[in-house]
Fold these 3 entries.
Entry 1:
Amino acid sequence: MDALEGGHGSHYEQACTQLHELLVRIAMNEVFRRGPRYRITGPELNDLAHQAAADALMRITHKIQEFRGDARFTTWAFRFVVLEVSSKLGRHFWRVSHTLFDLDEWTQVPDRSGSDPVSHWQARELGEAARNAVETALSAHQRQVFTAVVNGVSLETLASELETNRNALYKTMFDARKKLRDQLVASGHLSATG
């Protein structure tokens, strides 16, 4: 860590190389864990991990003076690369995703948990009702925010993309969830007391 504070020289370059290798490993683990959810595979995952590691290294070297030693340096650095991965995955979602929900994916949950056919049918019916409620009960803005949050877009990325703040997003999500619940109660899919 001390070598990074110098900002130049062979020790600095060596420290940056070692840190970058660590950041790439962390980023690779993170994108392989989260990438399939965003339908990102193959070389695109590798590229995203390397970009996140490079951007994290740049941020770390610019903020090295802020490191207070409250945690291990690697823990502090880990935070930067995970945030970069989240940001890049969120941006990818906004560039390529225009779908709301994939009903077939939602209905696989009962199969994976070993539920009986009746439970599977009920889950499928609830999934269809939820998708219908999202499409009909929510405003376009609520639908956009709700869909992004359900798909794992971080609130920071979402706030940046929509040029708003987290509090406004919390309010939008609160209102959207209330509308969805009300519609699912009205259609008999949820209990009014539960």
Entry 2:
Amino acid sequence: MGTGRPREFDVDQSLDRAVRVFWRQGYEGTSISELTEALGINRPSLYAAFGNKESLFRRALDRYAGRTARYGPESLEQDSARAVVEHLLRGAVDATTGRGTPRGCLGVQGALVSSPDNDPVRRKLASWRRAGEAAVRARLVRAREEGDLPGGADPADLARWITTVIQGIAVQATGGASRRQLQRVVEMTLRGWDAVLADAAAATSAQPDAAEAKDAESDAAEATDAQPPPAT
């Protein structure tokens, strides 16, 4: 019994081409015909290799995450919280404005899904973005535990802020913002980061003083209560 006709295309190369199509046009804006043309294969070959359009998109997203968006995991390995944030922001600018690649981010472009039939893709992308934010939050929690962030800093708020800026960078890049313009956004965000943490540090250092003042008031009240009543 024969083993069947071998595939006449390279799967990894085909995935790279699929990434570019989905990245440029989004999930809902990409047709099977456009995919087969970009990959250079017919529909039966596409279905045999990747299943349906949704399964191909999921594999393309994984490939994008492991290559173009690998700056994310790399950022979490930086030595300080500020270095993590800077690496994330600059990585986002590089990834969304690269030469020879579509503008913006596959995770944001692909999220432009409105049809109920494509809801699984919308949920997949939402989950992907939430996982990225959760990873940043966990890294900032560790930074606070190690004393790299003030005790008054909120890792959840900080992670949400930075991921929101990253998604905004992707949208701006898709709209034509230049790398230089987006780098200025990074610089302003980093100055904002420093200011927010300075405020958190000041609030944290002021807390013991407030507690001491409260204790002093309590001691004074106790001392007053302990005085004998005035003579009549």
Entry 3:
Amino acid sequence: MEARTEARAPQKLTGKGQATRARILEHAAELIYAKGVHATNNEQLRRAAGISGSQLNYYFPTKESLVLAVIQWQAERVLTFHRSERFTRFESLDSLREWARYYIAYERSCQEGCTLGSLASEIIKTDLDVRTELASAFRQWIDIFRDGIERMQQLGRISAEADPTRLAHLLLSAFQGGMLLAQVARDIAPLEDALRAAIDHVRAFAMPPAEELEDQ
């Protein structure tokens, strides 16, 4: 295997170069998802992205550098969405329910599954040296949930007895497993059941509102 080649940093490119690189990554992610890593070749990617061989080699000199960049690109999309104000930093049960409602209502959940999870399950079977990047992406995703649960504890919304890391693992595992089953069945019910059960478990640690405590 060739030595690791880090993805070329987008900030070093012109605006046009960044747009070209992003287009390549988008098409590469789609091809890898549809065909797999080994079945995706340069010719397919050149045609899909409308680029030349020299352009592809400039941005991604090796397949490993391309796959690494696809992981980073896909992870950034997922993490940015989960860090958005839509879910208010996951510091309440309502924000967790809003997150679940979004994916349950998303009409392509049953078709696409989790884009990052699907990418990981495909790439992890190869001999490409990108496991560290995959692990980092999922660790950051888990950290989003864990940090939210820790804030719930600081705000007195859930008990200090709750283990934020274990609950974060539960939430992401429910999401990944539910997405896979929903994709296989073409039915959103497995995802809905998994997310509701996971959130119900978090709710089991909920503290009563302060006014209720004062009345006791």
